[in-house]
Amino acid sequence: MSRKFRFSLLLSLAFFSVAVIIYVLDLKINANANKVSYFPYESWSLVTLTSLYGFTLFLFLSEFNSYKKKLLQLEHSLNSTTESLNYVQSSLDDAVEKKTFELSVINGSLNREIAERIQAKAEGVKLRKRLHAILNSAGDGIIGLDIKGKVTFVNRKATELLGWSSEELIGSLHHDMVHHSYQDGTNFPDHECPILKAYKDGQDYSESDDVFWKKSGQSFSVEYTSTPLLDEDKVTGAVVVFKDIGKIKKLKKQLELIVNSAGEGIFGLDIDGNVTFMNKAASIMLGWEQEELIGKSHHDLIHHSHINGTHYKVEDCPIYMAYQDGKVHFKSDDTFWAKDGNSFSVEYTSTPIIEGNKLTGAVVVFRDLTTFS
């Protein structure tokens, strides 16, 4: 039962009760109108009405106080709600301001990143163009391979030497196109190919005398190096650098013919005094085959003693001096020792070999004075 309904019910009951009481009192008054009575019915009506007034006033005051109390509670609740709303509004404003600042920072970072990426892309394009220009300017052929042995890039020199266009080579298997056979035409198994081994085991491989095959079906002599291509320590392919050594081999062969046709003995020495080559005349006079002397000390085998058998110090040797001081040294009368232990008088010139600004050895030209005389 609601408070409002209860209030109305009580007030209705009070008025009804008072009306009944007054009605009864009126009947009493009318009945005693001609009698002398000491009972003050009129006073009781006044008391009843006053009681009704008092009860009504009590109900109104009670209800007023109740509504006033509720109003105070509502005001307090409203104030609390207002404070909460103000706090929420303030928090929301702070959050919006913070998020706005964060978004502005993120937006600035994104703008910088976009600008950096655009710049990096432009620099990457520029770098690729420069790299292509460098590769195409190289005097050697350069081929890039992926992990499956397929060509990923070639420079201009490679296409000139092989006769294939870059479009024909890129995406094709290098071994099947260029390195499929030995010089005699027999099949070259791909598992034996040093070029493919480079990206399989991550090691550098080089060959000083091999053949590549042109589009025309002709082979040509090459010297190449196959180097694994690494991306963060992971092998992703290989780079092959090669050059046509056909002309060099031809010149070398011609030089060997010229040197071997000379009447004087000729041999080469490295910076340590070890024999690097020897012509036929030197081999005949010394009794050594070229293979027996290559890589061995010339002084220890041929020039170790004077004619009287005393030890010949290497520091006093004019041949040794040539590849130490870089000067030409001539000796008109000295002694060489043959393989059989016999000595013979020689005349020789020791000329230093200089590559760039670096001494790398010497060339010795000699003749047997005994035979000459």
Q: What is the number of E strands? A: 10
Radius of gyration (Å): 59 Å
Shape: rod-shaped
Helix content: 40-55%
Number of domains: 3
Would you kindly provide a written description of the structure presented here, covering whatever features stand out?
The chain is α+β, with helices and mostly antiparallel strands. The chain has 3 domains: 137 residues; 106 residues, PAS domain (Beta-Lactamase, 2-Layer Sandwich); 124 residues, PAS domain (Beta-Lactamase, 2-Layer Sandwich). It is 52% helix and 23% strand. It has 12 helices and 10 strands. It has a 5-stranded antiparallel beta sheet. The relative contact order is 0.05.
Descriptors for this entry?
Beta-Lactamase, 12 helices, alpha+beta, five-stranded antiparallel β-sheet, 373 residues, single chain, 3 domains
Q: How would you concisely characterize the structure shown here?
A:
This protein is α+β, with helices and mostly antiparallel strands. Helices cover 52% and strands 23% of the residues. The chain folds into three domains: 137 residues; 106 residues, 2-Layer Sandwich (Beta-Lactamase), CATH 3.30.450; 124 residues, PAS domain (Beta-Lactamase), CATH 3.30.450.20.
